[in-house]
Structure formats: C-alpha cells, structure tokens
Design goal:
By secondary structure, this protein is mostly helical. The chain has one domain (7-90). Helix content is 80%, strand content 0%. It has helices at residues 5-15, 18-29, 31-41, 47-68, 70-91. Helix 1 runs antiparallel to helix 5 (70-91). The chain crosses the membrane at residues 20-38, 45-66. Keywords: Membrane, Transmembrane, Transmembrane helix.
Length: 98
C-alpha cells in the first residue's frame, strides 16, 4: 500500500484539528495540577505510564469526536478523493494531438 503524505495529513487534520490540539496542550501545560492529582492516585513508579494513558485517552476522545460528525467525515472523504484525482491526473500521460 502506497501512503500519500497528503492523504495522511488530511486524516491528521481531520481527526486532530488544530483548534482541539491547542486546548489539549494547554491542559497538559497545567502539569503541576495534574501531577498533584497523580501523586494522590498513581504510584511514582507508574507516573510515566499514567501520563501515557492520559495522553492516549485524550487522543482517542478527539479522534472519536472527529468520527461522529457526518458532515466533517464527508468533507474528509471529499478531500481524499480530490488528492487521489490530482495524483491520477499527474500520473496519466499527457495526450498530445498533432
């Protein structure tokens, strides 16, 4: 399977939109607050694993959010079709008529 970087970027832009990633980064910047909560419930030996789980859960929630909006999913499929059509046109030999 040949992965076009533009198709991968379309998926990333759809499932992890920049307007959602920004607030996620802000939440993770509150590390002191979250770290205090972690110290109460998660042993020090598992802190990295705990952070990994929180990060993966936040990505999964954002990705799920991206799949439930049918209009956005249709827009994603249209964008992928545009990219595939552009690739097909670029790959097709140009026809020249004498």
């Amino acid at each position: 399977m040949d992965w076009d970087p533009r198709v991968l970027r379309a998926y990333v832009d759809h499932f992890l939109p920049r307007d959602v990633v920004g607030p996620v980064i802000i939440v993770f910047s509150l590390e002191g607050v979250i770290d205090g909560i972690f110290n109460q419930y998660v042993p020090d030996a598992y802190e990295t694993v705990g952070w990994g789980i929180v990060f993966l859960l936040s990505l999964a929630i954002v990705a799920y959010w991206g799949t439930v909006d049918e209009e956005d999913v249709e827009e994603l499929h249209e964008r992928i079709e545009e990219i595939e059509n552009e690739d097909a046109e670029a790959a097709a030999p140009e026809r020249s008529f004498p």
